[in-house]
Amino acid sequence: MAEEKAQAVIECRSVYKIFGENARKLLEESKGRVDEEEFSKAGCIIGVNNVSLEVHQGEMLVVMGLSGSGKSTLVRCISRLTDATAGEILIDGQDLLKMRNKDLIELRRHKMGMVFQNFALLPHKTVLENIAFPLQVKGVKTADSHGRAREMIELVGLVGREKSFPRELSGGQQQRVGIARSLAVEPDIWFLDEPFSALDPLIRREMQDEFLRLQSLLNKTIVFITHDFDEALRLADRIAIMYHGRVEQIGAPVDIVLNPVTDYVKKFTNEVPRERVLTTASVMEPKQEGQELSEFTVAADVIIEQVAERVLSATKPVAVVDGQGEIIGVLNCKRILHILFGKPS
Amino acid sequence: MVHLPTDRKSIQVALLFIVFAVLVAGKGVMPGWLLTWPASVTLPIAEWLNQALFFLQDEFWKITVIDVEEDLAEETTAVMLISRGVSDALQSSIDVVRNILLGGRKGFALPALPWTAVAGIAFVIGYALQGWRLSLLAGLSVIYLAVFGQWQDSMRTLSLVFVAVPIALVLGLSLGVLAYRYKVVELTLAPLLNVAQSLPHFSYLIPVLVFFGIGDNAGAIATIIFATPPMIRLTLLGLKKVSVEVLESGRMSGCNNLQLLTQVQIPSARHDIMIGVNQVIMQCLAMVVIASFIGASGLGYTLLVMLGSLKIGKALELGISIVLIAIVLDRLSLAWAHKQPDYRADLPFYVRYKYWLAIVGLTLLSIIVSKFFPYAYKIPRSVAITTAPFWDFMVDWVVRNWYSGLQQFRTFLLVEVLIPMRDAYTSLPMVAVFALLMGAGLFLGGVRSALIVGAFFAFIALTGWWNKAMITAYMVSFSVLISVFIGLSIGIIASRRSFTTRYALLICDTLQTFPSFVYLIPVIMLFQVNDVSVLTAVIIYASIPATRYTIEGLRSVPQGLQEAATMSGVSRIQRLFKIELPLALPHIMLGVNQTVIFALFMVIIGAFIGTQDLGQEIMQALSESDMGKGLVLGLCVAFMGLAMDHLINRWALPRKQELGLA
Ligand SMILES: Nc1ncnc2c1ncn2[C@@H]1O[C@H](COP(=O)(O)OP(=O)(O)O)[C@@H](O)[C@H]1O
Ligand SMILES: [Mg+2]
Question: Which of the listed CATH numbers 3.40.50.1580, 3.40.50.300, 3.30.230.10, 3.30.1280.10 matches domain A10-273?
Answer without folding.
Answer: 3.40.50.300
